[in-house]
Write a structure and sequence with these properties.
There is one protein chain. The protein is an alpha+beta fold and 274 residues long. The chain has two domains: 71 residues, Arc Repressor Mutant, subunit A, CATH 1.10.10; 183 residues, Beta-Lactamase (2-Layer Sandwich), CATH 3.30.450. Helices cover 48% and strands 18% of the residues. The chain has a six-stranded antiparallel sheet with strand order 5-4-3-8-7-6, sandwiched between helices. The longest helix is centred in the N-terminal third of the chain and has 22 residues. The chain is globular.
């Protein structure tokens, strides 16, 4: 039964504000002080302080030695449990292993959360030079192939919202620096059928990704192949993209997103273009 009393409304509002605090800390690259939290959320300092104290008591946020706030490790624990329970990860693993065997490079499975991609699985090849990434970590959409792959297949309003929320932090001289440049890259991704991170997140690292689409053609995830640019060369990208497309077709069938005939038809229109 819905509680429409003033007290019930206040409780819902308090929950909304608590999640707004968590969202703010999650989007920040550095810990934030009380004044920053209050100003960003347009709250009185005393109100922001109460929310932070409750969240700290439950280990949702923690305080640095300098008195600033960041996300707490309890959220990391929840995140790991959510990833473990995520059916997509389990279904995708055998296909990711086959992809790694075919390409001899690292494969990632990622999902989109607000304006960031979260790495929910990673499989590495038996090679000496490999990717240094961590399951559960995240990066912005603008500097990752998985981010651009999912953006390219989002509805226009959702894509515009993600781009609006994106912080165009520069990681290398090749990093996309603004919304117009990102939109141009997304359009290029849509036309050729795959996305590329050409040393935009880390110098010497090249990644290529394609989205995993559900029955409504909405990108529920993206899969990438990543490796050092001296191995993942521009000439190899179309070949790797074909392996990726075969991988997502197989996962799509396993997840029940498409039948075999619909699966072939759906991806024919997104055939890789060199």
């Amino acid at each position: 039964m819905r509680d429409s009393s003033p007290q019930g409304t206040y409780k819902v509002q308090a929950l909304d504000r608590a999640f707004a605090v968590l969202d703010l800390l999650g989007e920040s690259e550095t810990p934030l002080g009380l004044a920053q939290v209050a100003a960003s959320l347009q709250l009185h300092k005393s109100t922001a302080h109460r929310f932070l104290m409750v969240l700290e008591r439950h280990h949702m946020v923690e305080r640095t030695t300098g008195g600033k706030f960041r996300l707490g490790l309890r959220l990391f624990d929840y995140g790991n449990r959510a990833i473990e329970q995520y059916d997509l990860r389990e279904r995708a693993q055998p296909h990711l292993r086959r992809l790694v065997a075919e390409t001899e490079e690292t494969a990632h499975l990622c999902i989109l959360e607000q304006a960031r991609v979260i790495y929910i699985d990673k499989i590495e090849p038996a090679r000496s030079v490999r990717m240094i990434t961590r399951i559960g970590s995240s990066n912005s959409v603008h500097c990752t192939s998985v981010g651009k792959a999912m953006l390219a297949f989002l509805p226009e309003d959702r894509m515009a919202e993600v781009i609006r929320r994106t912080r165009f932090e520069r990681h290398t001289s090749r990093t996309i620096a603004n919304a117009d440049a990102l939109r141009a890259e997304v359009e290029k991704t849509r036309r050729r059928g795959y996305a590329v991170d050409d040393e935009e997140l880390e110098e010497g690292l090249r990644c290529i990704a394609v989205p995993l689409l559900d029955a409504q053609r909405y990108p529920v995830a993206a899969i990438s192949v990543s490796g050092p640019s001296f191995r993942v060369t521009a000439q190899k990208l179309p070949s790797i993209a074909n392996h990726l497309l075969h991988c997502v077709r197989s996962i799509s069938l396993d997840m029940g997103f498409t039948s075999a005939s619909r699966n072939r038809a759906a991806w024919t229109s997104s055939a890789v273009r060199s």
